[in-house]
Structures are given as C-alpha cells and as structure tokens.
Write a structure and sequence with these properties.
The structure holds two protein chains of two kinds. By secondary structure, chain A is mainly alpha-helical. Chain A is built from 15 helices and three strands. Classes of the chains: A mainly alpha, B mainly alpha. At the A-B interface, helix 4, helix 6, helix 11 and strand 1 of A face helix 8, helix 11, helix 17, helix 20 and strand 4 of B. Chain B: One of its GO terms (molecular function) is translation initiation factor activity.
Chain lengths: ~230, ~525
C-alpha cells in the first residue's frame, strides 16, 4: 500500500507534491521527513496546509519518539495564524500532554487563549515577550491583525480609532498609513466622531448589518421539487 | 457502536469454564454451521441473516453462555474445510468470546491474525459471497472495538505478567495502529466505494437503491465492507482525537439522506454519534445539535422494534450518551428551536435541572460539564506502544484526560457569554457604558466579551465559510449595541410540498373508490 508509492517516487524521477503524498499515504510513517520539511517550507514560503500538518502530528502521536518539538512549535504558530479557524485546538488534541507542559508550548497556549477571548492588548504584550517563538515565522503579525479585523468586523459597524489601534498593535504614523491603505483597498471609511476622535466605518457584512443576511428560509432545493414533478406533469 | 459488551479488561488471562472441550461439537452447533455454510454457498441472504441474527444468539445463550464455541478445527470437517468460511467462523468465535468472556493476550493476537487473513482474502477479491449488511457492519465495528480494547489493555502496564510483557514485545505488530488504519483505508480504496457513490449520483451505478446488495450474481462483501470502513475510520480518528480527519473520511457519505449506513441501526447510531461528537469538538454546535436531534427522535420512534435485537442494550446506552452530548451542546449554544418536541421533553426529563445549573458557569457548572463529557465521550486511546523500561506506568487514562482538559478549557473561554446573552435578550438597544455597569466590568473588557461572543458563535465550516450559531445576535454602532433576535426560519416551501403530495395521494385514493 502506502510504502510502495514512496519507493516508486524514489526510483522514478516523478515527483509528487506533499499534498499528493498525504492524500495517497495518510497512514505511512515513511513520509514523516517529507512532512517535516514541508512545515519548514510553509514557514518560509508563507503557505499553509492544515491537512499535511495534522498528518504529521498523527505520525508523531503514533511514534512519540520521533517527535520534534521545534517542528511542533512551528505547526502551532501556523495554526494560530489561521484564526478564526479552530486549527490550534485541532493540533492540541493530537499533542501529548507532557509535551504541552513545555515552556514554549505553554506560552503558545496562553497566546491562543488571548486570541480566542479577543484580548488583543494582552496578546500583543505576551507576544512581545516571546519574540523567539513567533518571530521566526514570517507573516505572523499580519495574520493576527487580519484576525483582529475579522472579529471587529463581525461585531462593529463603526469602531473608535483607539480600539482598532490597540487590537492590531499599530500606532502613530504607521497606523495612519495602515488606515490609508485600507481606505483604498478594503473600503474602509474614516469618520469624525462626536468629540472623541476618529471613527472607522468597517465594510458592511451580514454579521454587522444583519439586514444583509440573505433569507434562505424559503428557497427550496431542486431535488425537493422533483418529488412533485409527476403531479405537476 | 462499541460492540455489545463493556467488560473490564483486567489482566485478561482468565480461562473460562472448567469443562470446555474445544473439540466437542454439540449436534445443534454442527447443524448450525452446516446450514449456515449451505446458505452462504447458495447465496440465500435472507436465511443467512436469520441464522446470523437469531440462531447464533439462541445457541450462544443455550449452549455457550460462558464458554467459547467449538474451535474452528473441530467444525472445519463439516464445511468442506472451506477456507473463507473458517475465517468467518473464527471471526464470530472471537466476537462471542470478547462479548462473554475475557480474551487472553494470546487470543487478542490470534484474533488480529484472523482479521488479517480475512481482510487479505477480501482485498484480493476471491470472495464471491453475498453477506447481510448487519454481519458486514459487525465485522468492521468489532475490528475497531477490538483495536480500542487492545490499546486500553496494553496501556495498563502495572501488574502485567512477565510473560505478557514478552508476548507484547514479540508480537508488536498485532493491533498496530498503522495496520488497523491501513486495512480500513485499503478496504475503502480497493472497493472503489467512493467512486461508486459518485457515479450513483449521476445515475450510472446502483448501490444505495439495492442497500449495497448485488443482484447480478456478484459479491457485496468488498463493496459494503469498504463502505462501512469509512465509518470505521471516522470512529478510529475520533478515538485518537483527530476530529477533522475523521469527518473527512466520512465525507463521501451524505448523512443528510438515508443510505446504506442507515440500513443497520448500529451503523446508523455509530455514524451520527461520532459525527456529532466531532462537530461538538470543532465548535460546530448547530451541526451537532441538528444531527443528535434527528437520530434521537428516530430512536425514540423506532426503539420498540429493536427490543429483541442483541444490540438493544447498546442502542439504549448510546441513546443516553447522545442526550448528554445534546445537553452539553445546547448549554454552549442555546438553540432550542432546533430540537423536536419529543426529544426536548426527554431532554428536560433527563437533564433539565443540570442544564439550568450549567448555565451558571460557576465551579459546580464546570463539574457538570466534566461529568457529562466523561460519561458520553468515546473511549479515547493512546495508539503508541508503551515504554518497556521499568518502572511500568499505566497510561490508559492519558488520552481521555487530555481531551477532557481541552474541552473544559473551551468551556471556560465561553463562561462569560451566557451572562452577556441574558442581557442581550431583554434589550433591543443598550449603550456599551450601561451594559458594562450592569455586568460590573469596564468598557474595554466588555468589548472583549462581546467580541468573544461573536467569535465563538460564528463557526468556520470545513470550506472556511462563516456560519452564525447565535440565536441572539447584535452589532455595535460606535458605542451603541443593537440586538437582533434571529427568527425561526419558517419552511413554508417544504410544508406546501408535503401537502401537495398528500393531497394527490388522497385524490388518488378517492378515485379508486367506486360508488355504486
């Protein structure tokens, strides 16, 4: 089964992508090194594959002696960057508890807790203390900022400048630039608030403007209609 | 469904009953194998099913209540030493042993070997039988059960005999997790079941319509084993805490419709139990609630028909567990509208009071979440082999403790949401300042609570789409909170469709009546 493909790949020059390897060999210990390299690829090329990473964590779970804490840490940082998806929990479910007790993982779990409970101030403070863990992964800040903006846009139509600034951890001139960029590219509007500084009008979506929600209540799938075809005919 | 037994694994080397002679075949047992063998050769599925479901149980109760059935060598002469039949007989032999006695380590290993031989034969396509779905489901179900049972047994390292440790090391391939997963995966792939289900959608293939049976002289064994193996994979992955992958394995089966998985009650329940549990762990509460509700109402309506079935006790047990999981899901995501009246009445009876206390999110509430989760969760396993270096430690609870801890962690993150929801329910608009005062927190904290509410009630589905699970929703405009109550979606369309079909039926009925 699984092993054959890896051998074939080594014999012939045909190369499979890691995604294909995972699809064909979901339960094959031989692809472990490929998956570890792939985690590093994801870090350097700013890509992400949850399936491949879960597959690797699964192989670690089956053979704990092969587990590399450095790789696990990278997977977890990548999973944080995938918020609001529940990927971080999905990974923790597979990582043995004694590994989770290590200092660097404890820190990552605290970071995840702050993000899950939308405490961005505390998150950025904690992240600043753990530069060594998070800064090795390019795109980390931007990914968390995108998540913060996502939660804000689910919640608010308009948000005070200071609240937004705190959530994404940017201040002063760079914040102005950031706003400018989003006014041009994401449809943000800057508004003068009533006496207490600027307000940012976030783009409308069905969550902050419930009236936009399409009423799917009365649409009927075609398969259901087919039941009465004989009668209509 | 974890086969029809839940015994303590213990040391597992007790040998049953004093007077068991494996070579002695009572007449009725002889007649049983002879007839079963004949019906299998004649592909008489109906008779096979009768013998498999009824006669085997009756005989077990009468003759083999606390001893194993006669050994395979003793019955082989009565069935032309048929290789495949002997493998099937041994599979039942072990299943009976696991259900009524404690298997020894050697027997666990032998049972693994028997599954290997049986699945090899099926995978090589030399089986031309037609077996009842019930039997094929039981094979997959039992295979996964015995794997789980083995992991639990192995993890209890304390108090193991030296011989057991040696045997474990010598046969380290038995019930190896790679082996188990690769067999299930191979059955799925070799059977081409995923392609068959795809083609069926386009009308090029019949599978569901014939309940998986082959009426053109072929065999249903590989196809249906492959089909049930997808459910087996879902279950194994849930036991390992890999919910995402588990759900992925089930994707080819459309659980919004009837299918072969609903043709056997055990498979139906196992599928939905694990599907619902996985969704609960992935925070897709609405999906979990919807499916639990459907199956619980189905069990409510049909359980009387299963009273005589050997699976009846298991059905009731899973039924209770799913009520507990429904109570948990609804406590985290109050969506009573999704629950049918009958199910709701049962739920209130069983958990009404506990659910009220869970809403308080105090220490007692966490104890209740813990209690219900522990009662209703799958029997999690650690798949890796133990370290054979002394001192030996038991690690059979590790996997369960981790899943419980992470689940309670999630509950804690949601503890303030129920409070905020109470206020949102009674206001249509309220300012941040005022709500903060009511909740006795400062404004920035209130903002984080409101954002947490939004984040936790807006689940991301498998395609990355965001779905709202909130019955009470809101949005903030500057510093005003506007509350939006989601109204129950009235399904007029469906209602009218049903009425049209009904009316047509009545009219046809009336046309048939001749008035003289």
């Amino acid at each position: 089964m699984g092993r054959e493909l890896v051998q074939k790949q080594q014999q012939s020059a045909v190369s499979y992508t890691v995604e294909q390897l995972v699809a064909v060999n979901p339960y094959n210990p031989d692809i472990l090194p490929d998956l570890e390299n792939y985690v590093n690829d994801q870090v350097s090329s700013q890509t992400y594959s949850l399936d491949a990473n879960l597959c690797l964590l699964r192989l670690y779970q089956f053979e704990p002696e092969r587990l590399s804490t450095q790789i696990v840490a990278r997977i977890l940082v990548k999973a944080l960057m995938a918020m609001p998806a529940p990927d971080f929990s999905l990974c923790l479910f597979l990582i043995p508890e004694r590994v989770q007790m290590e200092e660097q993982f404890k820190t990552l779990i605290v970071l995840s807790h702050y993000l899950e409970t939308a405490r961005f101030r505390q998150f950025w403070d904690e992240a600043a203390k753990s530069r060594l863990i998070v800064e090795v992964v390019p795109g980390f800040e931007q990914a968390i900022q995108a998540y913060a903006i996502h939660v804000l846009s689910l919640t608010c139509q308009k948000v005070p400048r200071s609240v937004l600034a705190e959530a994404i951890n940017i201040e002063g001139l760079s914040f102005d630039k950031f706003l400018e960029h989003h006014v041009v590219n994401s449809g943000w509007i800057l508004e003068k608030g009533q006496g207490k500084g600027q307000l940012i009008v976030l783009p409308r979506n069905e969550f902050n403007h419930p009236e936009l929600k399409k009423s799917t209540a009365d649409s009927i799938p075609l398969e259901h209609i087919t039941r009465i075809y004989p009668i209509l005919g | 469904m974890a086969a029809a037994h839940d015994y303590d694994d213990g040391a597992g080397h007790s040998q049953p009953a004093d007077a068991y002679d494996p070579t002695f075949v009572p007449d009725s047992a002889k007649s049983f194998v002879v007839h079963l063998y004949r019906h299998i050769r004649e592909k008489n599925v109906y008779e096979i099913h009768q013998m498999y479901e009824a006669s085997f149980q009756t005989l077990s109760d009468r003759l083999f209540k606390d001893t194993p059935w006669p050994s395979v060598d003793a019955v082989a002469p009565f069935v032309d030493n048929d290789h495949v039949f002997c493998l099937l007989y041994r599979e039942m032999w072990f299943r009976h042993l696991y259900a009524r006695l404690s298997p020894s380590l050697k027997q666990r290993i032998d049972s693994w070997d028997n599954y290997c031989s049986l699945f090899q034969v099926v995978l090589h396509g030399v089986v031309n039988m037609q077996l009842p779905n019930q039997w094929l489901w039981d094979m997959v179900d039992e295979f996964v059960y015995q794997f789980q049972s083995f992991c639990q047994y192995r993890a209890k390292m304390k108090n193991k005999h030296v011989q057991e440790i040696e045997l474990l090391q010598q046969y380290d391939q038995a019930w190896n997790v790679y082996g188990v997963l690769n067999f299930l995966q191979a059955l799925v792939e070799k059977s081409m079941i995923i392609q068959i289900l795809e083609q069926e959608k386009e009308g090029l293939e019949q599978f569901t319509a014939t309940d998986g049976y082959d009426y053109n002289g072929g065999s249903n064994v590989l196809k249906v084993l492959g089909y049930f193996s997808m459910v087996g994979l879902l279950r194994v992955h849930c036991l390992l805490g890999d919910y995402q992958t588990g759900l992925k394995c089930l994707l080819p089966i459309d659980i919004s419709q009837q299918g072969v998985y609903t043709s056997v009650i055990g498979s139906h329940i196992t599928t939905i139990y694990h599907y619902g549990f996985a969704n609960l762990m992935l925070r897709r509460y609405v999906e979990a609630i919807r499916e639990f509700n459907k199956i619980l109402s189905y069990i409510y309506k049909t359980k009387q028909y299963h009273q005589k079935s050997p699976q009846y006790e298991q059905i009731l047990k899973k039924n209770e567990q799913m009520y507990a999981l429904l109570a948990v899901s609804l406590s985290l995501c109050p969506q009573e509208k999704l629950v049918d009246e009958t199910v709701n009445t049962q739920l209130r009876e069983k958990y009404g009071e506990k659910m009220l206390r869970m809403q308080r999110y105090d220490d007692e509430a966490f104890t209740l979440f813990d209690e219900l989760f522990s009662y209703a969760c799958p029997k999690f396993i650690t798949p890796s082999a133990p370290s054979y270096v002394e001192p030996f430690v038991n690690y059979n609870q590790d996997a369960y403790r981790l899943q419980l801890k992470l689940f309670l962690y999630e509950v804690k993150q949601q503890q303030l949401l129920s409070g905020v929801r109470t206020f949102l329910k009674v206001y249509s608009t309220i300012s941040l300042g005022k709500l903060a005062t009511y909740m006795e927190v400062d404004e920035p904290t209130l903002r984080t609570i409101l954002m947490t509410y939004k984040h936790k009630t807006h689940a991301v589905d498998s395609e990355g789409k965001i779905n709202s699970n909130a019955d009470i929703d809101f949005y903030i405009d500057d510093d005003m909170i506007h509350v939006v109550e989601s109204k129950p979606a009235k399904r007029y369309g469906d209602y009218f469709l049903r009425q049209i079909v009904k009316l047509e039926g009545v009219m046809n009925e009336m046309d048939r009546i001749k008035l003289d």
